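Weekly sync, protein design subgroup
Attendees: M.S., D.O., the rotation student, P.L. (late)

Item 1: inverse folding check
M.S. brought a backbone from last month's batch and wanted to see whether the design step gives back something sensible before we order anything. D.O. pointed out we never logged the input encoding, so this time it goes straight into the notes. Structure tokens as presented (109 positions):
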């Protein structure tokens, strides 16, 4: 009897899923906003809209710009929180590795 098939294969943990999703989500959002701004500025510059439509497009452009400014104000705070979470995660991993290696000597508290 072949016992190799009875032992389950240990899968490696996939740690990049959340981070990769967040990075691609933010990148997609930035690309979408850039495309929207290009479309709005093209409509205004080409003169394809007239009268009240031009005011609407101008308001749309100013709302995009205002929103981008509000997000840009919060980026340092988000980066600070991300750095703190990263540092705490690294410390937790180091403590886990340290406990597995049992480097604390022979004494226990």
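Designed sequence read out in the meeting:
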């Amino acid at each position: 009897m072949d016992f190799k098939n009875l032992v389950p294969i240990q899968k490696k943990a996939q740690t990049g899923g959340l981070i990769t999703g967040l990075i691609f989500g933010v990148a997609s959002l930035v690309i979408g906003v850039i495309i929207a701004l290009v479309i709005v500025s093209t409509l205004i510059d080409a003169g394809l809209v007239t009268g009240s439509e031009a005011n609407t497009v101008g308001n749309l452009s100013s709302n995009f710009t205002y929103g981008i400014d509000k997000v840009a104000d919060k980026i340092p705070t988000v980066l600070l929180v991300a750095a703190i979470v990263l540092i705490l995660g690294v410390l937790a991993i180091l403590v886990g590795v340290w406990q597995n290696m049992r480097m604390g000597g022979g004494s226990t508290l």
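Discussion: The helical segments are 16-46, 52-101. The two ends are 48 Å apart (CA to CA).
Action: P.L. to compare against the previous round before Friday.
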